[in-house]
Amino acid sequence: MSLLVKDFFNFLKNLAPLHIADPQDNNGLQIGSFLNPVSGILLTLDISKEALSFALKHNLNLIISHHPFIFNPIFTIIKDNPKGDLIYTLIKNDLNLICWHTPLDKINNGVSENFVKAINLKSSEFILKEKYDENFGLGRIVYLKKSIKLKNLAKKIAKLIKSWVMVAGDLESSIKAFGVCGGSGSFLKEELKKLGINTLITSDVKYHIAKDAYEEGFNFILIDHGISESFILPFLKTKIQEFLKRKNSQIPIEIFRTTSLYQIYSPKRREKINARRNTKTY
After folding, report:
1. Full residue range of the structural domain in which residue 188 is found
2. d(CA 96, CA 152)
3. Element (H, E) at 157
4. Does residue 186 form part of some domain?
5. CATH number of the domain encompassing residue 24
6. What's the structural domain count of the chain?
């Protein structure tokens, strides 16, 4: 008996329930049919022309994307614009698209926890628990056995994730504990400060938030948004493989991997330049 799209939709509901999604989030089946048989599965962070080409090449007719493809209202579907072309491709090739976003952020073994594991550390608890269900929450807190300087922690993370890292804070400050939030998590700064923790690893921190944090003695380690969330995909693949084994199914699963969208250029310097407040920049 073949497995249908609805079987994987129900699997995801059990793994990361929809009732914990952010109200403005858009999760679930966005294109396709619940009754379509599944020939193969592609896991990806985003829908792109490259991801769809990969799915078609490998006969993967169910795509599970972390970020919602359809988020804001769509008033026209025109093949001549990029999003319209992707929609045409999905429908014309009878592809099915499920998006599962903030529920995967909030489960115990979710986006942030899998990032912590990727940098070879262990976390202890959520930074911010769900108001009505403390079994779910956002971000993770890491307590270190031995303190480390901010600059050395940033270098270690860059090496392990093989991507760029930026720091907003005092590079010489000693870190004994820090928070992690995959994706955009700067709003968790105040929760960490309540716990006496002065460092957060996250993405997409706006200038004025970083500036205020600097004045307060709070540090940000910034990494690429997509990289920070990409470590959920191998976890999701493992959980689906366990599900398929229980169903005696051999449906193939592939992960579509991307690198950072950003290319960072910096002028070569023979010596370190002291910025304002005598803070060294690298």
Report:
1. 107-228
2. 44
3. helix 150-161
4. yes
5. 3.40.1390.30
6. 2
> Are residues 91 and 176 located together in one domain of the fold?
no
Indicate whether 34 belongs to any domain: yes
Instruction: Please work out, in degrees rounded to the nearest 5, the angle formed at the alpha carbon of residue 122 by the alpha carbons of 156 and 43.
Output: 85
Give the tens place of pLDDT for each residue, 242-269. 999 999 999 999 999 988 999 888 786 5
Q: Are residues 141 and 190 in the same domain?
A: yes
- pTM, entire model: 0.92
Return the half-sphere exposure (C-beta side, CA atoms, 13 A cut-off) of residue 108.
Answer: 6
**Per-residue pLDDT tens digits for 210-254:** 999 999 999 999 999 999 999 999 999 999 999 999 999 999 999
Whether residue 168 contacts residue 222, with contact meaning beta carbons closer than 8 Å, is answered with yes
**264 inside domain:** no
Mean pLDDT of the chain: 93
Whether the per-residue pLDDT at 274 is higher than 70: the answer is no
Residue 68 shares a structural domain with residue 137: no
By DSSP bridging, strand 128-129 and strand 137-138 are antiparallel
Q: What are the structure tokens assigned to 273, written together?
A: 């330049």
